[in-house]
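Continuing the batch. This is chain 6 of the set; chains 1 through 5 are on the previous pages. Same settings as before, nothing changed between runs. Recording input and output for traceability.
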Amino acid sequence: MTLLLVAAILLLALLGTPLYAIIGLAALLSFHFAGIDSAAVFIELYRVASAPTLLAIPLFTFAGFMLAESRTPQRLTRLTQALLGGVPGGLPWVVLVACAFFTAFTGASGVTIIALGGLLYPLMLKEMYGKNFSLGLMTSSGSLGLLFPPSLPLILYGLIAKVNIDQLFLAGLIPGTLMILILAVYSMVMSKRFGIRRTPFDMQETLGAVKEAAWEIPLPFIILWGIYGGVFTVTEAAAVTVIYVIVVESFVYRDIHPIRDMPDIMKKSMVLVGAILIILGTAMGFTSYLVDEQVPMQLLAFMREYIDDQLTFLIVLNLFLLIVGCMMDIFSAIIVVVPLIVPIAQSFGVDMVHLGVIFLVNLEIGYSTPPVGLNLFIASSRFEEPVVRLYRATLPFLGLRLMGLIAVTYFPALSLFLPNLFGS
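Output for chain 6:
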């Protein structure tokens, strides 16, 4: 019966059945054959839905989509280009910083590639950067902001792993900056190879760009100051962000009409939130079954036969998570995989905040890892290039990001320094 169940689930997956339906079916059938009331699935959904921090997800998502639908990408591009365009490799720096900022607020790297790709990719070609380099940089930069607050994956990991979200926000700052710097240094080297000349710093243009984006620049600082200054919680920060973004984009810049445009943006953003919540509910029910059947403990016992130290465990974990990052979107991966690996990681003495950073770095790399990384196909569609070309274009960036992953994994202080310094 178990083999038939597994075969049926695999067949449904191959036929394109939505992930939540597959997980929900697996949970319901597993409970049925184990003689457990299937209401346990819905109890888990209620427990997750009643978590106060969960409200931050739809609020931050809506704020991110508001920014994406406004002229924020254009203002952000102008600002970063004015500030960074004069340094060696200035335009790639612009791409890295702008994409990281944007992904942090939208929580979806595909949205970043779509929103900023049309602005930055033609600009890089115009400045005579190589096509493969430009494609690789844009595709890889799409997921860079996942470690910066108020990243939705950070919030979701905190909910699932029961880790303080304020500490996760702090933990992601240094590793996220490191990943940007690694690619920035490589971009500086490549800029010299392409013979790109530095653009002289223009004070008038910089002041104009700062003035134009004056209402959007304070947003991340308001969030960080409010949370770590004890002014408001993460959920309250999300509510403040939504109000601030609505006022700025609808009434200050007037990019978004509150009656004509906002309902459509709400619909788009809540479709993403709905998908997350459905997968969250069904996956937590299935996870309860796995815990009841002591599957994590069985996995731990199996691993203990071959792995007896933290270093080896982290090597195996990274390989596993890179594969997961290729095959699943980041929200599904967090919901399904985190409950299984948390008890195993704890047994090897891995800090749960550090584990969260390792998890997200792996998944953001997996987004652009051949052959099935999601960003490869989004970029292929956005830039109208064969996906095979994207494979070649992203390989140098993939190697550099793996170097960053090694540093983040085996030097826990990169993740834990700020939480230990400022954390409660």
